[in-house]
Design brief:
- The complex is a heterodimer of chains A (140) and B (375).
- By secondary structure, chain A is an alpha+beta fold.
- Chain A has 2 helices and 4 strands, in the order ααββββ.
- In chain A, strands 2-1-4-3 form a 4-stranded antiparallel sheet, with no helix packed on it.
- In chain A, α1 runs antiparallel to α2.
- The N terminus of chain A is likely disordered.
- Chain B has 375 residues and is α/β, with parallel strands linked by helices.
- Chain B folds into 2 domains: 159 residues; 165 residues, Rossmann fold, CATH 3.40.50.1470.
- Chain B has 10 helices and 7 strands.
- Chain B has a 7-stranded mixed sheet.
- The mean pLDDT of chain B is 91.
- Chain B starts with a helix and ends in a 9-residue tail after the last strand.
- Chain B is elongated, with a radius of gyration of 29 Å.
- In chain B, α1 crosses α5 and α3 crosses α4.
- Chains A and B meet through α1 and β4 of A and α1, α5 and α10 of B.
């Protein structure tokens, strides 16, 4: 079996979004649109801007649109390290020759994998490791 | 009435009605939150637990599916292994009675030995064509699937109980622990890949230190699945111990140390134990720290044996720990941990130089799961 033959894909179909949740978001969207319409009406009739109403309704519209977009996005069920590369480092037991390649099934540390092209010494799997994901640097 | 005034009248009327509607909605929302606040919070918490439970179930199913497909592929069984795997996933270990603590370690060791034997025997039956290394790796895959199944069942228990009783405090307990449970579950899922492919894992950092030290030297099996090698380090005679690789197992390092100390009648200048240790948030992965004591995790049997025999012969105990996060312990080893291994070897040499004299005997034990690491 070669690398990745056993599929560990974690992309699920995503849970179905509950109808009630969608209804709440749509109600919020409609109500915020009405509130915005009223604010515009107030401005046209009294020439004064109802700042709070405008801010609240614009935020509610943005939030509803954001939630609707999020709902449509395909969810990942869980994080795993499937797509991280695993590297095998090979070193010569006698000289300073070393090379690296992708991990192959059957590799293990201190396994003999042939002879050195430089000195004909024994080539060994020196280390096997996965590439690290660069995380955000902590302040502390 | 002019058309403009008519439109303005309608607009004013509509505005007044809308204002009333908004007022009514506010009052209604206030009353609902006042009366049903905790109920709403409980429902929201239940929804959160339900979402996590759904993810844990997916992980559990993935674990089961990988265990079955790997057994089919490696073991080439004549019959379908699914019923056996399902039976194993429900396996339970019953801890010894603690009411009378006398001899509890011996009883615990017996239960652990029986469990290991039974599990390996089941795997052997399911995968008759697997060699010893593959058997050990398959056992690790099954143990991981079993752990995921246990986590799923516990979270489901609290979820259903919370749903049934609508008790805020039952749901709160599981909801508070969910971030940690999810992190651990994801670590188990990542472990499946490492165990299936036989890649070294973070927990094997100690075993890798020992493997580097004992490479090309003669080895003998001193206790079950545990090897020892005599190595000369800085002019001292060192007994280097590790679990027998490259299959996934942890061996019996405690028993190995006990046997060497008994053989040498306590004439050992220092015992150094190297192991991976869980880092605190903010600490660097692969950071190496030193201490005193027995750095052996697990149920405590090996730790007890080393403490007992070291105390009997008054031998000093040093510990070297390689720090790593919970997500690194059982997933494929990271580069930072490999760097930590190199540093740990230098620390061992320094400890030996500073704490022993030339010609002395020392014991160095590399603890951890040796999957993907030979000797």
């Amino acid at each position: 079996m070669n690398r990745g033959e056993i599929s560990m894909s974690n992309e699920g179909e995503g849970r179905r979004t509950p109808i009630i949740f969608t209804a709440i978001i749509l109600t919020m969207l409609v109500m915020s649109l009405i509130a915005l319409f009223l604010a515009v009406g107030t401005y046209l009739s009294h020439k004064t801007i109802d700042v709070i109403n405008v801010i609240l309704s614009v935020s509610a519209i943005s939030l509803s649109i954001y939630l609707l977009i999020q709902m449509r996005r395909k969810r990942t069920l869980f994080q795993n390290s499937d797509n991280l590369r695993v590297i095998t480092v090979i070193k010569c037991a006698s000289c300073d020759y070393n090379s690296s390649r992708e991990f192959e099934k059957g590799d293990y540390i201190l396994r003999e994998v042939g002879s050195c092209p430089k000195c004909s010494g024994t080539l060994l799997v020196y280390s096997i490791f996965r590439e690290s994901q660069e995380g955000k640097k902590e302040k502390f | 009435m002019s058309p403009e005034a008519f439109v303005a009248n309608i607009q004013q009327g509509f505005q007044d009605s809308a204002n009333w509607i908004f007022q009514a909605i506010w009052v209604l929302a206030f009353v609902i939150i006042w009366i049903y606040g905790q109920r709403i919070q409980t429902t929201l918490m239940l929804k959160e637990v339900e979402g996590s439970l759904y993810r844990i179930k997916a992980m559990r199913d993935k674990g089961r599916q990988i265990a079955i497909s790997t057994i089919r592929e490696i073991g080439k069984p004549s019959e379908d292994p699914t019923p056996r795997v399902d039976r194993l996933l429900e396996h339970i270990d019953i801890e010894p009675v603690t009411l009378d603590p006398t001899g509890i370690i011996r009883r615990l060791e017996h239960i652990i030995n029986v469990r290991d034997f039974r599990l390996k025997d089941e795997v052997r039956r399911m995968a008759p064509h697997a060699d010893e290394v593959q058997l050990n790796n398959l056992t690790n895959v099954l143990e991981t699937a079993l752990a995921l199944n246990q986590i799923y069942k516990i979270v489901r228990h609290y979820y259903l109980m919370g749903k049934k009783t609508l008790s805020f405090y039952i749901i709160l307990q599981i909801q508070m622990l969910l971030p940690l449970i999810m992190r651990e579950s994801e670590a188990f899922v990542n472990a499946l890949k490492a165990f299936t492919l036989g890649q070294p894992i973070g927990d094997g950092a100690g075993a890798l230190v020992a493997a580097r030290l004992m490479y090309s030297k003669e080895k003998r099996e001193i206790s079950q699945d545990t090897v020892v090698s005599e190595v000369e380090i800085e002019g001292r005679k060192a007994y280097v111990i590790k679990a027998k690789g490259p299959g996934g197992n942890v061996g019996k390092p405690g028993e190995a140390i006990r046997q060497i100390l008994e053989e040498k009648e306590g004439k050992v200048a220092l015992i150094i134990i190297v192991d991976a240790a869980q880092k605190l948030e903010g600490e660097r992965s692969g950071e190496v720290v030193e201490g005193v004591g027995v750095a052996i995790g697990g149920p405590g049997v090996d730790k007890y044996k080393v403490e007992e025999v070291a105390t009997k012969y008054n031998v000093p105990l040093s510990a070297i720990l390689i720090k790593e996060g919970i997500e690194d312990v059982i997933s494929t080893m990271r580069k930072e941990i490999i760097d930590g291994v190199e540093e740990a070897i230098e620390r061992i040499k320094r400890l030996i130089r500073e704490n022993t004299r030339e010609g002395d005997t020392v014991i160095i034990a590399g603890i951890g799961n040796t999957i993907g690491i030979s000797q």
